[in-house]
Amino acid sequence: PGAFKAPMLARIEPQLATQVPKPPDGGDTREVWLHEIKFDGYRTMAHLTEGAVKLITRGGIDWTKRYGDLPHAFAKLPCRDAIVDGEIVVLDAKGISRFALLQDALAQGAGSKLHFYAFDLLHLDGWDLTKAPLVRRKALLAQMLSGLGANSAIQFSD
């Protein structure tokens, strides 16, 4: 429910996290709350179109060429067209994203240090998913990424 046939949009404005004074109490049983990891990186929309990928910043700038080898990882996704929302990061030795490491990697030419943590699927093979429930979009995204493996530069963010 919520998905509809539509051409892929050139740009989707990313939804941003909102700081609140306290977490929801769950008192309204009709509400479903998801909690996601806050990564320390660059918010990026991956636009896949028939094998080509563009990595677009939250400000709408194409940074594909700045991201080194990372765009090649998207060729392994089992889809023709998609828009995947995520965060580009560099991890420290403990697996924690560090913005300073990301800036250093980009200044040095990125190479293979970058990871894309995918947390939302907004378009897939002719279907606009933006009106579908987030829980369903995340399930579809997890399924799409499941064949990539633990060492892939693209990872699902639960």
What can you tell me about this protein's structure?
- The chain is built from three helices and seven strands, in the order βββαβαββαβ.
- It has 158 residues and is α+β, with helices and mostly antiparallel strands.
- The protein has a single domain (37-156), classed as D-amino Acid Aminotransferase, Chain A, domain 1, CATH 3.30.470.30.
- Strands 1, 2, 3, 4, 5, 6 and 7 form a seven-stranded mixed β-sheet that branches.
- Strand 2 and strand 3 (52-57) form a beta hairpin.
Please indicate the percent range of residues in DSSP E strands (runs of 2 or more).
25-35%
Major sheet characteristics: 7 strands, mixed
- The average pLDDT value, as a whole number, equals 91
Cα gyration radius (Å): 16 Å
Keywords for this structure?
single chain; 158 residues; alpha+beta; D-amino Acid Aminotransferase, Chain A, domain 1; seven-stranded mixed sheet; 3 helices; 7 strands; 25% strand; globular
Secondary-structure topology with pairs:
Blueprint: E1 4-5, E2 42-49, E3 52-57, H1 70-73, E4 81-89, H2 99-107, E5 115-124, E6 127-128, H3 134-145, E7 154-156
Parallel strand pairs: 5-7
Antiparallel strand pairs: 1-6, 2-3, 2-4, 4-5, 5-6
Concise structural overview:
This protein is an alpha+beta fold and 158 residues long.
